[in-house]
Amino acid sequence: LRQGLGKTRRGLVNQLKAIVGQGPLNQDAVMEIEALLLQADVGLEATDYIINKLQNKLREESLPSEQAIEYLKEILREILDRPLQQVKNPGFAPEKDTLNIWLMTGVNGAGKTTTIGKLAHLSQKSGYSCMIAAADTFRAAAVEQVKVWGERTNTPVIANPGKNTDPAAVVFDGIAAAQSRQTELLLVDTAGRLQNKKNLMEELSKIRRIIDKKAPDAQVEALLVLDATLGQNGLRQAEVFSESAKLSGVVLTKLDGTAKGGVALAIAQQLNLPIRFIGAGEGIEDLRPFSSYEFVEALLN
Ligand code: GDP
């Protein structure tokens, strides 16, 4: 991840050090930090929060440069950790001997299919039985892509061969199959065509209803897969999805290619959504549970 966030890292740390300099933090430096945070896509709300805390601290005591950077890291971790406190099973920890259903949402191209493949792999490595429901029935290619990941990870894929089948029906079949084979983790791929927003949101709500009805005892997560390189546009996507998909968290992808990792802070602060996993590459191993410590170090060190 350190390497992954390399661009962000080199940028922010050098600039921060240059701004803070040797002496105690002064008002000019605070203003420059503010600009830096906005540039890194931390967003207005989170930036205001950070700068206010910094100002309050400065009113109490003078902050030598090293201490200023440490305090800044502390605030960033606090923002990221706050929504994580509501997570029942943090890290990769589906409940054993129970059906866990993870509804994977996000716009096309965000890295949803890849993330499903990575999760199936992680699941297998961690000793869980896993299955995938290919409920993005809108794009034939999506089903094929999911099947490829299924083969690579030795994970059964439930799909409906017909075109334009009802995604909720595939989810229904997926749950039935998972229940009869006592599968522990069912990953559900969903459509990501944001061109027809209303339609997609209705589709997601319908899938949610099917899950609640067919598997009322399942542990359900709804994760939004979000491309970190989108910066503030990603925040708007997250807003749209959180309205209808009852999101429980975010998977931030493509952190290997961006200086925009700051959007994680905007998501945590503005939407109160925990970042659950991060993707830092196209490979099957390039997914890891989110750690605020690791993330902030990578962002600032
Ligand atoms: P979907 O349309 O949301 O299912 O997106 P895909 O899973 O097909 O991914 C779109 C592209 O992003 C593919 O070329 C993936 O290899 C790539 N991708 C996915 N996750 C990551 C990541 O964490 N880092 C990088 N660099 N590329 C990724």
UniProtKB/TrEMBL annotation:
It comes from Rippkaea orientalis (strain PCC 8801 / RF-1) (Cyanothece sp. (strain PCC 8801)). Part of the signal recognition particle protein translocation system, which is composed of SRP and FtsY. It is a peripheral membrane protein. Keywords: Cell inner membrane, Cell membrane, Cytoplasm, GTP-binding, Hydrolase, Membrane, Nucleotide-binding, Receptor. This is Signal recognition particle receptor FtsY. The keyword Phosphoprotein does not apply. Residues 274-287 form the SRP54-type proteins GTP-binding domain. GTP binds at residues 106-113, 189-193, 253-256.
